[in-house]
Amino acid sequence: MSMQRRYFLKSGAVALVTMGLSPSFLRRTAFGMELPAAQKGKVLICLFQRGAADALNVVVPFGDPSYYDLRPNIAIPSPLRGQGSATALDLDGFFGLHPSLAPLKPLYDKGMLAPIHAVGSPSTTRSHFDAQDYMESGTPDQKGTTDGWLNRYLAANGTCEECKVTPFRAVAMTQQTPRILEGSAPAVAMNSLSEFAVRTGSGDQVTRLEALYKTGSADVVHGAGSEMFEAVKMLKSANPLQYLPANGANYPKSQFGQRLMQIAQLIKSGVGLEIAFADIGGWDTHVNQGSVNGQLANRLDDFAQSIAALTTDLGDKMENVVILTMSEFGRMAKQNGNGGTDHGHAGAMFVIGGSVKGKKVYGKWPGLSPGQLYEGRDLALTTDFRTVFSEVASKHLGATKLDAMFPGFTSGPHLGVLG
Known about the structure:
Elements: H1 3-18, H2 23-30, E1 43-49, H3 55-58, E2 59-60, H4 65-70, E3 89-90, E4 96-97, H5 105-109, E5 113-120, H6 128-137, H7 149-156, E6 170-172, E7 188-189, H8 193-198, H9 204-213, H10 220-238, H11 255-269, E8 275-280, H12 295-314, E9 321-326, E10 347-353, E11 383-384, H13 385-395, H14 402-405
Parallel strand pairs: 1-8, 1-9, 5-11, 6-7, 6-8
Antiparallel strand pairs: 2-4, 3-4, 5-10, 9-10
Helix pairs in contact: 1-10, 2-10, 11-12
């Protein structure tokens, strides 16, 4: 092997890793393992709110008087008290959305958004790291699980004869592959579409590198290199640098907003996307959480505007898209001495999409009186997060091997969130 070929093989392998194709992905493609085909037409977008979002100020139980007793300074005012826009946005006379979630209220009114309250992990941990790991692995209190529940879905379900094999079946808009997508099935992680398309260089360098990959023996880098160039070509054909959102959608300039815009690009470009993932941090509000305004309100504003822009941009395509939001746990029911909230137990999720049976808050409400709180301090859990995940996987994606996705878990009746 010439020095020139050695150099290009080495630099090409590095390019694969920096573009988000993990070494395990490289090995799988090299040894001839077929990428599974995408589930035709359906897309699941998972959004992780890292840091434990305060469910009680996100989906506000203004109809429970104990809520205001527990939070004299940070509670969201009830819409029944007639204080205009500086109140919770009434959903059903008992629950309301934080006013910063106003961009999502039209989705609720159209029946496309379903909040789920008192939902989360049965684990008692209040560790961010452990709770996130359990939610992404789908196996609470089992630290030995090596893969994520979405990767197990990809490995066990969703092949169809009509679907084109594609390296973009599962994409995370993150710097590294998230826990939820780790495992044997291929997945791509990238900071942005433009980075993925151009990191190999441009012009003659790419042409020469591609030519070298196509010659010689079928070694590891040769096989993965062909896959890399096909992926780059697919994105270039979608022209990500020239994308214009549709229907007047206006994405925030934040990292989260821009990543959701790029998920919309992938969906509309026809590259075979089935699973998309993005996360947003900043929810660990121990100090100065705020009420209608403040730290939490600002985070929710970016969150809501970004999701609303995504649904507007996709338009009629939302009939085949479900957005699922999640956070590792909720926060303590009573405010602390620093104007914030400490780590709690149950939280809240949103399920959004054209097939969602919205305009209803799901989940059994456990109450906030002293005798109803978990360990005397937290919102009690009434819905295991795996019940929600399994319903979304089976009803939306058509998953049939739920025992492989959530080992050791037997779900009760579905909540009925999806039609």
